[in-house]
Amino acid sequence: MSFINYSSREINCKIVYYGPGLCGKTTNLQFVYKRTKPDQKGKLISLATETERTLFFDFLPLALGDIKGFRVRFHLYTVPGQVFYAASRKLILKGVDGVVFVADSQIERMEANIESLEDLKINLAEQGYELEKLPYTIQYNKRDLPYVAPAKEMDSLLNPTRVPSFEGVAVTGVGVFETLKSVAKQVLFELKKHY
Amino acid sequence: MESNLIMYEDEFRRIDDELKRLYHQANAKVLFLIDKNGQLIASAGDTHDIDTTALASLTAGNIAATGGMARLLGEKEFSVLFHEGDKDNIHISLVGQRVILVVIFDQRSSLGLVRLRVRKSTETLAKIFDEITQKADKDRSEGRLDESPFAEISDEDIDNLFR
Q: Is some CB atom of chain B closer than 8 A to the CB atom of A161?
């Protein structure tokens, strides 16, 4: 649910990064934070455990520029990936405008990817959303590691509707901005459709 | 699924006026009005030293977590949260179904006073937000959102954001 403020001429959109534990959601946000100009970003908030696992969410506000005289703000959130934080994950999807699913390309994590994607669909449905109708992009992360599944194979497993997908190495930034731009574009075009 | 929140100048001014009134009557330091999804709607008082965007997001997370706890216990929601600090205190409450009111105050005010004033302002604010929702629904059903900044958005506009 985006927030359009005609008074301050701002539009706010919420983008959520979803995916299994340790797939690189937080790393995506950290790279975006690192590579964005200081005047375009707010603080990167991480509610994490002592071992740097996401406990509740990470949050990064971005104000990249103006469109038609309106300041466009994206609020990027990650969910905690670990299975037992299910209740928290559900909360963060509230009011989402666009979803990025970060999949772990390692063959041994394919099961976890599938499980997380199912979990995403169920949690969205509980809030009255359908993944198929939301702006949605997939990132196949960790392409630099050995024993990764071919992107084509991952497409057939995780991307039956063929939404935009990108190969990524979030630690070095490969695919990070491409992914964000893809989902942002869909979110803004969705607004165009409805307003 | 909730619809988008659209705020026009007129309603924004009325909200702003009500926040200013509450700010004075409750002897508060700072006031915020936040959308349940974590987006800042309006504020009153000296917000200069506060990261308002981060505060808004964390407050919404707080309310969401508390709401989750409430449902586990069979409550509909906990409509008021209060955090007490050494110097500053935060009073968080729900306005209608989609907005959160945050009042930060110190020893110049008191919890009792804040609660009393918040209750009154909540009624006024809830009414304004109801009107905003009705207005947006009406505009949408009549296809009358003439000022829309997105009607002619292009690929190039979006590319420019990421340059």
A: no
Q: 0.95 cut: is pTM over it?
A: no
Instruction: Assess contact for A26 and A34: CB atoms under 8 A.
Output: no
CA pair distance A174, A182, nearest whole angstrom: 14
Question: Given an 8 Å threshold on Cβ–Cβ distance, is B153 in contact with A192?
Answer: yes
Residue A172 CB-density burial (10 A; 0-12 exposed, 13-18 middle, 19+ buried): exposed
Separation in Å, CA of B120 to nearest CA in chain A: 25
Cα B76 to Cα A163: distance, rounded to the nearest angstrom: 37
Write the single-letter amino acid at A163.
V
List the beta strands (DSSP E) in chain A: 3-5, 10-18, 45-48, 54-67, 70-78, 98-104, 136-141, 165-167
B136 vs A2, B4, B12, CA distance in Å?
13, 9, 14
Q: Is the confidence at residue B2, as pLDDT, over 70?
A: no
DSSP string for residues in A3-14: EEETTTTEEEEE
- For CA atoms A20, A21, A22, A25, give the dihedral sign: positive
CA distance A73 to A173: 21
Cross-chain Cβ contact B68/A5 below 8 Å:
no
Chain A CB contacts of B7 under 8 Å are 3-7
Minimum mean pLDDT range among A2-11, A26-35, A149-158, B49-58: A2-11
